Amino acid sequence: MRAARFDERFTLLDRAEAPTAPELGVGSIIERLIALTRSVIPPAETPHGIGVAAPGPLDSERGLILNPPNLPFNQTPIRDLLADALGVPVAVGNDADLAALGEHRLGAGRGTRHMVYLTVSTGIGGGLILNGELYTGAGQAGEAGFVIVAPGDPISGPGREGYIEPIASGTGLARRAREALEGGRDSLIRERVGGNLEAITGKIVGEAARAGDPLAREIVESAGEYLGYLITSLAHLIHPECVVIGGSVAGLGDLLFAPVRRTLAARIVDPVYAGMRVLPAALGEDGGLVGAAIYAAEGGIS
Amino acid sequence: MRAARFDERFTLLDRAEAPTAPELGVGSIIERLIALTRSVIPPAETPHGIGVAAPGPLDSERGLILNPPNLPFNQTPIRDLLADALGVPVAVGNDADLAALGEHRLGAGRGTRHMVYLTVSTGIGGGLILNGELYTGAGQAGEAGFVIVAPGDPISGPGREGYIEPIASGTGLARRAREALEGGRDSLIRERVGGNLEAITGKIVGEAARAGDPLAREIVESAGEYLGYLITSLAHLIHPECVVIGGSVAGLGDLLFAPVRRTLAARIVDPVYAGMRVLPAALGEDGGLVGAAIYAAEGGIS
User: Fold this and answer.
1) Partner residue opposite B143 with nearest CB, options A67, A144, A269
2) Residue A51 in contact with residue A296, Cβ under 8 Å?
């Protein structure tokens, strides 16, 4: 959990973080989140508003966190709990949506009318800025991780459901490396985890790719290729001017972006989409925090 | 080419059609389109406006047809050509976009805020109504036929590019039937074309499916399954309240819609998308004409 205070130009003034510790239950998470938020508010000041970048799925209009995987929330009225405790208006948005808003207003997507943000990290998520505004559709638009790019293909994991997330997320990179090593492939990665394949993470695969390990390179290249299919599809469907990619896996830079761009060049129907740019996120890890502040300042619900 | 006259409540008053005959060239097409349009305007009347549902890609703001496949247009200023000849303001939109607008205002999508229209016919196209308005993004949004659902898979044709269009369009159904018959499969379809496999069309495959032919059923079922992947992806990305499917292949009804719905039920991440409906188009073949009239009445450019 992170909390930050911004001035009216969205300059970061103070920042704090604490472990979420979901095993302590919802009550404890909320209590500690309130304390963390208080810790960045000077005693004599009252903020104009608070934006919360929360894991989805959400009911933004009612300020509820519904039932996110791996967290004990269930229809939790986080907006009202925080507003009551802190005496300040609170707006709740999806974390990837608010990172999209941050990148659009102050990051890589500045000046565009239509922008798609993708976050490629432990999982894959996204947010849409259409006609200059955050677009959430009937509530949960932007869930790019569940776009189907390879149905029935073992590349997407044991269920073969074909979603992009298990192919190109950090978790996916780790699984794919593990499967290859179980299949007898040789790689730096095996040494890095002392032979304990369960210890492989996306970060370790990324580091091995940076170090030139052929297996890791191959997996990252393939992740880029499939992200290229995802972006081809969303270009044809949504036709944004710009696709911004953030998250830790995007931190691999050209190792990931080169196969993305190569795939787009091969698959996008020219020439109308030729102007669409694909850019790395500019706000780094704090994109969601900045986006939450902007969301609060702009009045919350899209 | 079709032309129709509507009253201010979009009731159809008159309708005419003529072959496009692209081999006669752009000049002839435009000349005959003007004559066709004149034929539905009574001598003493001047329409309030004219909407044109044109094949994409387009530059709607400048009223140009850019370079559609199979038609000789090239940056053709159709808006100004028609407006000059007929002395009436003209608005030009993509045919699938305007069919989407028609279905939203007066068809299956009435009353929704966010709707996706898909047309599954010779090809596959689409249009998006977001926040109640036609959304075209940087110009060519809604090109659902070029969503990638099976990259590298021979099911998508010789190029294996994986687009949904060659898998589930009428042209795709015909190709897949032809390939199966060349591979020795038995089917009603073979008799229907007197052994001439080049004569197979999507319509013939559809008729054989209706008659219970196992091969045709299998191909239509598979088309529905892959359309289900497309709709799963666009649900997660765009989260519309409603997906409306039109076009001749959608005319197969439950033969197509049952596998679409089965695939959605299996692949959509519950429970937030549970309310999303998938409906057949209500306006039939004239959806694009109605949509063009509405587009003109609403002022054109989105």
Assistant:
1) A269
2) yes
Instruction: Give the model's confidence band at A39: pLDDT under 50 very low, under 70 low, under 90 confident, else very high.
Output: very high
Alpha helices in A160-213 (DSSP H): 165-168, 170-182, 188-192, 202-210
**At B14, is the secondary structure helix, strand, or coil?**
strand
For residues B176 and B29, give the distance between their C-alpha atoms in angstroms, rounded to a whole number. Answer: 33
Query: For testing the chain A interface, which of B233, B234, B241, B269 should be mutated: the one with the most A CBs within 10 Å?
Result: B233
For B150, the closest chain A residue by CA position comes to: A150
Among the listed residues A1, A253, A227, A247, the one whose alpha carbon sits nearest the alpha carbon of residue A123: A247
3-state secondary structure (DSSP) of residue A152? coil
| DSSP conformation class of B9 | T
Q: Quote the CA–CA distance of B49 and B237 in Å, as a whole number.
A: 35
Q: Give the confidence band of B300 by pLDDT, cuts at 50, 70, 90.
A: confident
CA distance A48 to A63: 18
ipTM of the complex: 0.95
Q: Structure tokens of A168?
A: 């190109």
Under 8 Å CB-to-CB from B24, ≥6 apart: which residues? Answer: none
